[in-house]
Design a protein that fits this description.
Layout lengths: L3 H9 L8 E4 L8 E4 L1 H4 L9 H7 L4 E3 L3 H18 L3 E5 L2 E4 L5 H4 L2 H16 L5 E3 L3 H8 L7 E3 L5 H5 L12 H8 L6 H6 L2 H8 L1 H10 L15 E12 L2 H21 L2 E11 L5 E12 L2 H19 L3 E13 L10 H20 L14
Parallel strand pairs: 1-3, 6-7
Antiparallel strand pairs: 1-2, 4-5, 8-11, 9-10, 9-11
Helix pairs in contact: 4-6, 11-12, 13-14
Length: 379
């Protein structure tokens, strides 16, 4: 989706159209920008930026607090459109998903027509715009979706693959941050095309396995399937920040929202998970994971959050450093039982019943029309 939070604000308040908007926490509370409108981005504002700095760059901006339940309500409408065209929808966040349109030609025509119909449906039925990338795999589709924002449609095929990728800066590849970009520059590698043609041994010696991964992406290779939650071996979400975030409290708030997202996806897929994994990546591409395996599988948001928060707090207390990426994954999945056990603890039964009640409300009125107080949104 294009400038999603800001787009919803403009949808609900047409008088805000054309103005600089910053959606996020207040500067006084050391908040960060969740979404900057395209008008504000012209002044250098972007997501994950400290709100105080964004206001200095764009003093005329209108600052709005996030309205989580409204954004999720709009998101549900968008995802319902996606699933009209294909059941193979893999959510990545509240405003982004991968769709596999293979085999839909008989119903909807060529894939390009499917993409255009999705764009029109989102615009006409929801009232906001999205940018789509159509390609043979996930990496290329994601990259293409970012090449012509807002309201774009970019199609990558085997015939135009290298013409599309080669001129791009290596920083456009997943995972190539400032540190990796600087190291590649030592080999005079600054574009995707230069990386694609570079000596594999030199790149591997410089960056190890990450170098091999980057070269595969530079060649347009990505063999991961689109996996709906019900078919997944794990369910997770992660976010790469435009700039490293150096405030533990801000990272904890992001993690909290990620845990809510994972918990609801587990319940939507009628799944439970035994293992919760925290993923942390620094600006130099150093990546850490911390995992805990629970005694019993769970689909409760509170248990996912409590486990992930414990892992985060333990890491933060001992070796905190600014993060470029943060994510949480639930794995060791199994089908969720249909009934509560008589031997379940009272608190667990209460959590399960509460999650079910809130999910029922979300299905009827939009995701998280009502939410648990401890999950931290005042709206």
């Amino acid at each position: 989706m294009d400038e999603f939070f800001a787009a919803v604000e403009k949808l609900d308040h047409p008088e805000l159209r054309g103005k600089c908007l910053l959606v996020g926490g207040s500067a006084a509370a050391r908040g960060v920008v969740a979404t900057a409108s395209y008008e504000a981005r012209r002044f250098g504002c972007h997501s994950a930026m400290p709100m105080a700095r964004a206001i200095r760059l764009c003093p005329q901006a209108i600052v709005l607090p996030p309205r989580g339940k409204r954004y999720r309500q709009v998101s549900q409408g968008v995802f319902e459109i996606f699933r009209r065209f294909t059941p193979l929808v893999e959510p990545m966040s509240i405003d982004e998903a991968f769709l596999d349109a293979s085999g839909t030609e008989r119903l909807f025509g060529p894939a390009e027509d499917v993409a255009r119909r999705i764009k029109l449906a989102v615009r006409d039925e929801v009232g906001i715009t999205c940018s789509l990338g159509m390609a043979p795999n996930k990496f290329l589709a994601k990259l293409a979706s970012d090449l012509d924002k807002p309201d774009g449609l970019v199609i990558v095929t085997p015939d135009n693959l290298h013409a599309t990728l080669d001129p791009l800066a290596v920083s456009r590849l997943w995972g190539v941050g400032p540190a990796a970009e600087k190291q590649l520059a030592r080999l005079n590698i600054r574009t995707v095309g230069q990386l694609r043609r570079a000596d594999e041994r030199l790149v591997r010696d410089l960056l190890g396995e990450a170098g091999e991964h980057f070269q595969r992406l530079a060649r347009g290779i990505d063999d991961r399937p689109v996996t709906p939650d019900a078919q997944a071996k794990s369910i997770g979400t992660e976010e790469t920040f435009a700039v490293d975030i150096d405030e533990p409290a801000a990272l904890r708030r992001i993690l909290l929202q990620q845990c809510w997202h994972v918990g609801r996806r587990l319940r939507h897929g009628a799944l439970k998970a035994r293992t919760v994994t925290l993923k942390l990546r620094h600006g130099d591409f150093t990546t850490l994971t911390r995992s805990t395996t629970l005694r019993e599988a769970t689909d409760a948001t509170e248990e996912v959050w409590r486990t992930a928060a414990h892992l985060f707090d333990a890491w933060s207390a001992g070796q905190f450093a600014p993060l470029r990426l943060l994510g949480v994954t639930a794995s060791q999945l199994s089908p969720a039982a249909g009934q509560l056990s008589l031997f379940d603890g009272e608190q667990r039964q209460r959590n399960t019943q509460l999650d079910k009640a809130l999910d029922d409300i979300a299905e009827r009125f939009g995701p998280s029309a009502v939410r648990r107080g401890e999950l931290g949104e005042e709206d």
